[in-house]
Specification:
Blueprint (H helix, E strand, L loop, with lengths): L16 H5 L6 E3 L2 H17 L16 H14 L3 E5 L8 H13 L3 E2 L10 E3 L20 E4 L5 E8 L3 E2 L2 E5 H11 L1 H6 L5 E3 L11 E3 L3 E4 L2 E4 L3 H6 L11 H14 L6 E3 L6 E5 L3 E5 L2 E2 L9 E8 L10 H4 L31 H4 L5
Parallel strand pairs: 1-2
Antiparallel strand pairs: 2-14, 3-17, 4-17, 5-15, 6-14, 6-17, 7-16, 8-13, 8-15, 9-10, 11-12
Helix pairs in contact: 2-4, 5-8
Length: 365
């Protein structure tokens, strides 16, 4: 797209955080007694049948009453603000398997769980494993460090809180449309830079027959519809490959500007997670980050979130470069990090393996 053709985007998904901080009912759904009863019954049924978490489908996980609310939540994610928080999942009285069943079952009504890493994990665990986030194969969610604003490579990302940190760990989200519009006001030339090809590191998770890097702009248009994908660390880490073009000063100027705009308190929304909260984000319309946190010293008390990446047919049409990174599900959506020959799994325990894990470990404070 030529610079002269770049126009501001409009719609409900273009919002400012301080405004929404005063309107929590617009983006929060609290489970009522009937919802929790339906959830308990569905969890008990799956547990009694001894089904694997991956065998959960909407039909097997019936949620009378709550299903209608989840349809409205899906609509909010695609046509509304682009995010939603569900509160009140009774994780305090669920064991780890019951919590996973409840979370995966709710997620099944919103999309298809896809792989979050090269090991085929469809159910992820966000914990501080003491990994060094500066190393090429590191993933930010495996540390307690502050995370910069970014998107995940799927239609929807969900996080369910089992335990919160001793302090810190706030989730910060910002409208990608608002960031784009503000950047367009200030430096349309740098917006144009971010519509061009950028090379990104696969961080060791390389599908068969693919390069260890892929190409994807930050701002992508399909039928004049904007979707955003930004992970600064993967762009910078791709510079380790000799066959990747060197980043220019102008590109780095564009990165600095998008990050400074996203981090403007006048734009982003902070939220604290409580046990039983589920945060759902549309990755095409929302950038997210996290403040650094301090964990409890006891392993059984440390911050622990479960994560889902969901592909959904309700998602927007995506520009072709998205599929250089990932293949497609049967419904035609990005399928995450699923590698040939790898079978999807839903581990109930935290697994600290993965590419280069033995080299990533640092001391946990």
């Amino acid at each position: 797209m030529d610079q002269a053709d770049l126009k501001p985007v409009e719609g409900t998904r273009v919002w400012r955080g301080p405004d929404l901080a005063q309107r929590t009912d617009d983006w929060t759904y609290r489970l009522n007694a009937d919802d929790i009863a339906a959830l308990d019954a569905a969890v008990a049924q799956i547990a009694a049948q001894d089904l694997d978490v991956l065998e959960i489908t909407p039909d097997r996980f019936s949620l009378p009453g709550l299903e209608d609310s989840l349809k409205r939540i899906e609509d909010d994610l695609q046509k509304g603000l682009g995010f939603k928080v569900i509160r009140g999942v009774p994780v305090d009285r669920y064991d780890i398997r019951e919590a996973a069943i409840a979370y995966f079952g709710i997620g099944s009504h919103l999309g298809e769980a896809v792989s979050q890493n090269a090991r085929g994990h469809a159910l992820g665990h966000v914990c501080n494993l003491g990994f060094d986030p500066t190393l090429p194969t590191a993933r930010g969610y495996q540390s307690a460090n502050k995370l910069n604003f970014h998107t995940d490579p799927t239609d929807l990302v969900g996080l369910m809180c089992l335990r919160k940190a001793k302090s810190g760990g706030l989730s910060s989200i910002v409208s990608a449309g608002t960031v784009y519009n503000e950047m367009l006001k200030q430096r349309p030339d740098l917006v144009h830079v971010l519509t061009q090809t950028l090379y990104r590191d696969r961080r060791g998770e390389i599908p068969e027959g693919r390069k260890p890097w892929y190409r994807l702009p930050v701002f992508n248009f399909r039928d004049d519809h904007l979707t955003t994908n930004y992970v600064r660390s993967t762009i910078e880490k791709a510079q380790r490959f000799d066959d990747v073009p060197r980043l220019t000063a102008v590109q780095r100027e564009a990165f600095a500007l998008i990050e400074s705009i996203a981090a403007d308190p006048a734009l982003y929304l902070n939220m604290a997670f409580e046990p039983g909260d589920i945060q759902l984000l549309n990755n095409h319309y929302i950038l997210h980050s996290r403040t650094a946190y301090e964990d409890y010293p006891e392993p059984e008390r440390r911050r622990h979130l479960m994560r889902l990446w969901l592909a959904t047919e309700a998602g927007p049409s995506l520009a072709a470069p998205y599929y250089e990174f990932m293949d497609k599900t049967e419904s035609g959506r990005p399928n995450g990090y699923l590698m040939p020959g790898v079978t999807l799994t839903a581990p109930l325990e935290v697994e600290d393996g993965g590419p280069g894990a033995s080299e990533q470990r640092v001391a946990i404070a």
